[in-house]
Specification:
The protein is α+β, with helices and mostly antiparallel strands. It is built from 18 helices and 19 strands. It has 4 domains: about 15-155, 3-Layer(aba) Sandwich (Rossmann fold), CATH 3.40.50.2300; about 155-275, Beta-Lactamase, CATH 3.30.450; about 285-295 and about 310-380, PAS domain (Beta-Lactamase), CATH 3.30.450.20; about 385-550, GAF domain (Beta-Lactamase, 2-Layer Sandwich). It has helices spanning about 25-40, 60, 75-85, 100-110, 125-155, 175-180, 185, 200-215, 255-275, 295-300, 305-310, 320-325, 325-340, 380-405, 410-425, 460-470, 490-495, 530-550, and strands spanning about 15-20, 45-50, 65-70, 95, 115-120, 160-165, 170, 215-225, 230-240, 245-250, 280-285, 340-350, 355-365, 370-380, 430-435, 445-450, 475-480, 500-510, 510-520. The strands form 4 sheets. It has a 5-stranded parallel sheet with strand order 2-1-3-4-5, sandwiched between helices. Strands 7-6-10-9-8 form a 5-stranded antiparallel sheet. α14 runs antiparallel to α15, α14 runs parallel beside α18 and α15 packs antiparallel against α18 (about 530-550).
Length: about 550
């Protein structure tokens, strides 16, 4: 059985994800589990030091994904993978190993591994591992949903059938076949006229087909003929499938009253599916790779209307570099040869802006003849941006930890270096550490990576003015756009030349020591992010801790 358009389930992974991590190093397994659960609170990670005992458990019922090391005593990761595949052929299995080689990777792929990741230093690897787990589990749950939907269609009381562009049945469920008195297999490949009476065929030709071509759907009553020659009136709904065939819902009118409730449920489910599809770009290409159909999701994501898109090549949505590299032709060739091709990368909208896309191209065949391609695209820009921000935040924390714990580096040097690190992370021009005298409001610059004109000692410098406001605040002060006359920080632009500012107070036991400040002469287009504020707060906590540990709060022993 085949459909003229690939059936795609659009589910969001919101439930708990049960992960089993097998590694013969218990400490490393616990560290991995901790970082995974910090990365995504939906993860419930169980650890095991040996693979053998795990095989006695009901794996499909117990876990959504297995992550395994390669080098382990008694049973290595490949042997474990093969044993799991014998019991659970579709359970996601990720080989997470410190020993990487093409041979191991090839053997793992042959054994049915879902993904293969080599361990690396640092914590960024855990973000990568978490993303791979999410993707694998989401794909598995989507596959299960497809199976459930096929079963639901087969079990539906309404007769459901699909017809290709040549008018041949490509699928009928049991209810459809039973209603017209045929076996499902006997109808597949037959022309639609097989199940209509002479009067019914005239209605189809004169009324139904023109309505479907013009409006996309038709609903009404038609005269049909069963396999035994008896005629009956059927309630019939016909809907166009992107100009490449039709889906038909058929019901004997005499059964209408008992099926009304179920029909309402089916229609509501269909409506929800259509609404969900708007989150995806879904369209069909002809065998040459030119667009034949266009849905609302495609228009929303790409910015192209249907009249602009139909007839255009797939490369219309590719960047200049991708067009030069022949990416579109490569995807179509791979899909034609293997049945499907996937790609994640940048794509271009109509207005010239770029977005990250997850693209699947599926070849559509009829008796081995290529009829075209189905393309499903999801905008994953938010996910990629989130991953980039997480990775950048992890690198900042790692660099901050390395700088602040470097015992061979003088404290004064470490202070200047962490200011430089903060300037780079928040993407502002200048940063400094200063003390404030509460008696007269004067300040002393203790360390700086800034423009000296912004940090002159005294009471009236730009930095001192904002440092005093920081101390008077709840501990953190932000001003991202001093060019906006409606914002309270607008006066900073006129008085001090500031475009934006981010600062945190240094305070021990209620005593204010001063502030750490970051500024730029140009405003920012958007407010400071939570990650950027947290980065400055972490830096301020370390400075406060060090200064408190060293005692002597009145005179800090630092130099610029």
């Amino acid at each position: 059985m085949s459909f003229p358009f690939p059936y795609v389930t659009l589910t969001e992974m919101v439930d708990e994800v049960s992960v089993l991590h097998v590694d013969d190093d218990p400490d490393l397994a616990d560290v991995t589990a901790t970082f995974l659960q910090r990365t995504d609170d939906r993860f419930d990670v169980e650890t095991a030091s040996r693979a053998g005992p795990v095989l006695d458990r009901p794996l499909d019922d117990s876990y959504d994904c297995i992550v395994s090391d390669y080098e382990m005593p008694e049973m290595d990761g490949l042997e474990f993978l093969k044993a799991v595949r014998e019991r659970s052929p579709n359970l996601p299995f990720i080989l997470y190993t410190g020993r990487g080689s093409e041979e191991i990777a090839a053997d793992a792929i042959s054994a049915g591994v879902t993904d293969y990741i080599q361990k690396k230093p640092g914590t960024v690897q855990y973000t990568v591992l978490a993303n791979r787990i999410r993707n694998a589990v989401e794909a598995r749950r989507n596959e299960r949903q497809v199976v459930r939907d096929y079963h639901a269609m087969d079990a539906a009381w309404d007769g459901i059938g699909t017809i290709d562009a040549e008018g041949r049945f490509t699928y009928v469920n049991e209810s459809y076949a039973e209603t017209v008195g045929y076996d499902p297999d006997a109808l597949e490949g037959e022309q639609w006229q097989t199940v209509y009476s002479e009067a019914g065929r005239e209605v189809v030709e004169d009324e139904i087909l023109p309505a479907v071509r013009e409006n996309g759907t038709w609903t009404g009553e038609t005269h049909l003929e069963r396999a035994d020659g008896t005629e009956f009136v059927g309630e019939h709904t016909v809907g166009d499938i992107d100009g490449d065939g039709a889906v038909c819902v058929l019901r004997d009118r005499t059964e209408r009253e008992e099926l009304d409730t179920r029909l309402r449920h089916e229609r509501e489910r269909f409506r929800l599916l259509v609404d969900a599809v708007e989150e995806y770009a879904m369209f069909v290409l002809d065998p040459e790779g030119r667009i034949r159909s266009w849905n609302a999701g495609a228009a929303r994501i790409t910015g192209y209307g249907e009249d602009e898109a139909v007839g255009a090549p797939l490369s219309t949505f590719h960047t200049t570099e991708q067009v030069a590299a022949g990416l579109a032709d490569g995807l179509l060739e791979t899909a034609a040869e293997t049945g499907q091709a996937t790609d994640q990368g940048l794509r271009a909208r109509r207005d010239g802006s770029a977005y990250w896309a997850d693209v699947t191209v599926t070849a559509l065949r009829d008796d081995d003849a290529l009829r075209g391609f189905a393309v499903v695209t999801k905008d994953i820009s938010d996910r990629i941006d989130r991953e980039h921000r997480q990775a950048r935040s992890e690198r900042y924390r790692e660099d901050l930890y390395a700088l602040t714990t470097d015992a061979d580096r003088p404290f004064e040097r470490r202070v200047v270096d962490v200011l430089d690190l903060g300037v780079d992370y928040v993407r502002l021009r200048d940063g400094c550490l200063l003390s404030l005298d509460p008696s007269d409001g004067s300040h002393e610059v203790l360390a700086t990576s800034t423009d000296p004109a912004l940090v002159e000692p005294g009471t009236d410098s730009a930095i001192a003015a904002y440092a005093r406001r920081t101390v008077e605040s709840d501990g953190l002060l932000t001003a991202f756009n001093a060019d906006d006359p409606d914002r309270t920080e607008a006066s900073a632009r006129k008085s001090y030349g500031f475009g934006c500012y981010l600062g945190a107070t240094l305070e021990v036991d209620g005593d204010c020591l001063g502030a750490v400040c970051f500024v730029d002469r140009e405003p920012r287009p958007e407010p400071f992010s939570t990650d950027e504020k947290t980065a400055v707060e972490l830096l301020a906590r370390w400075l406060t801790h060090e200064l408190d540990r060293r005692g002597d709060h009145a005179q800090w022993p630092l130099a610029t």
